[in-house]
Amino acid sequence: MQNAFAHFDELYSRIKKHGGVLMLDFDGTLVDIQYDFRAPQLKTRTKHTLQRLARMYPLAIVSGRSLTDVVRRVPLPTVAHIGCHGFEWRIKGKRHAWKIPAVHAATFTRIKRRLAGLAKVHGARIEDKRRSYALHYRLLRRSAGIAFAEEARRLIVELNRKQHLRVIDDEYTLDIMPNLPVSKGVTAFHLFKQLRSSPRTVPIYIGDSLTDEDAFRAFAKGITIRVGKKQSSAAHYFVSDRSAVDVFLLRLAQKSSTSPK
Q: Is the dihedral angle over the CA atoms 230, 57, 259, 219 positive or is it negative?
């Protein structure tokens, strides 16, 4: 894994030569992770940088949040959006979603009902995104959070014996969704093929968490950048922290606007 800034000129040269499609995770990449999942808002300067980039490159925002939520937080009309870890997306003003089989939907509905009761007892926050269901326990005291997570995991195992659901267990959140071949990577690649100008167009994907690893693998031949160095990551490059993403994107916008065609 190499430092993206140390190789910036090399990366930009490749983008300039073949064109690029820029795909950015939201939480932990464009905004800081916060204790309350409802709190993060795009900073004005970050929004301005994204507006500049969207005039030069096809741009997609990729998130585990619901599609409605991520569109509201990044309200740029020309930008594509992916929500619910890839289960739904919006491109050129139209919304789309992968179909969920009835048997998976039935198990999903049943487990949501049980987990809602458990979350209420423990005081965990619920984020119902329709196609995924997140339980946030970051705000609980450490011992209470551990107890809640352990009980929730046991309940999920009990109700998911046929493996109709999968769970993303990361960042003090349990995110439950139908167990289908759908991920950020699958849908990002689907959108990339629609947004690229030619087969040689370079995908540029920046993300920070476990859920972005699918996309790093999907774009193994592209430019993949992880927020924070982690040798086990499938990303080829890294930036040190979330604020470094702002610096990288601004540098890309400045270079792209001043570079001769």
A: positive
Q: Are strands 20-25 and 94-97 parallel, antiparallel or unpaired?
A: unpaired
* Residue range 2-98+182-258 in CATH 3.40.50.300: no
Coil, helix or strand for 212? helix
Of all helices (H) and strands (E), which one includes residue 24?
Answer: strand 20-25
pLDDT in tens, 205-249: 999 989 899 999 999 999 999 999 998 999 999 999 999 999 999
The domain segmentation of the chain, as residue ranges, is 2-98+182-258, 102-178
Fold of 102-178: Aspartate Aminotransferase, domain 1 (3.90.1150)
Tokens 């930009």 correspond to what residue? 12
> The tokens 């900073």 sit on which residue?
43
pTM of structure: 0.91
